[in-house]
Amino acid sequence: MTRMHSTYRRWCEVVSVVVVSVASVTLAAAERHDMMRSRVPADKIAEARALTNPLPDSPDIIRNGKALYEGKGGCVTCHGPSGRGDGETAASLNPPPRNFHHRGFWRHRSEGEIFWVIKNGSPGTAMIPFGSQLSDEEIWSIMRYERTFAGGHRRGGRMGPREGMGRHGGMRGTEGEPECGRQDCDDDEHVPAP
User: Residue 192: phi, psi to the nearest 5?
Assistant: First the structure.
């Protein structure tokens, strides 16, 4: 009886590990899929993608953006001081705030799309519109600062490929399916996300 109990217990441990592993992989895939989705409504996407940041990538603009991010803009509350989407209210938000360190965030959307979401909000998320609280110049400054979290992803040029999503521009469908057709596609070379 003891041997049978031990075997049963070991079997339960193995099943538990498998269930946790499958759940972890499923959650990671869902996070990558969410990362790919544009938060701009389909009827506004062309307008948003046409916008470009008029401010130079200068230390003064970045300092101003940081002050706004941590102060008036309130970005730090949800996105956290390090921009990882881990601010003090983040745990209670579904979907969670964007992680500005994730390479997919910068590679798969234009700066105009990010500007549009900050200004107009993101339906279905806790991202409220800040267009009545922040000027366009302040939003662009915040974006210059947020981009410093990217650690070199697309620094010095436009964010995202020429037209937004995917190496060849555009997105397939309005749900943000990657150009390569796989939900785990995370960059322009269509390499699966880690």
Answer: -55, 145
H or E segment to which residue 175 belongs? none
Q: Is 157 helix (H, G, I), strand (E, B) or coil?
A: coil
- Write down the pLDDT at residue 45: 93
Residue entry with tokens 């003090």: 88
Q: What is the DSSP letter of 43?
A: G
Tell me the residue type at 46: A
User: Mind listing the pLDDT tens digit for each residue in 144-194?
Assistant: 999 999 875 544 444 554 444 333 333 333 333 333 333 333 433 333 333
59-70 and 136-147 helices, crossing angle to 10°: 100
- Measured CA to CA, the distance from residue 140 to residue 150 in angstroms comes to 16
d(Cα 124, Cα 80) in Å, to the nearest integer?
20
Cβ density class 147-165: b for 16+ within 10 Å, e for less:
bebbeebbeeeebbbeebb
Residue pointed to by tokens 């105009």:
112
pLDDT, mean over the chain: 74
Helices (H), the chain: 2-36, 45-49, 59-70, 75-79, 103-107, 111-120, 136-147
Angle of the 136-147 helix axis to the 111-120 helix axis, nearest 10: 130
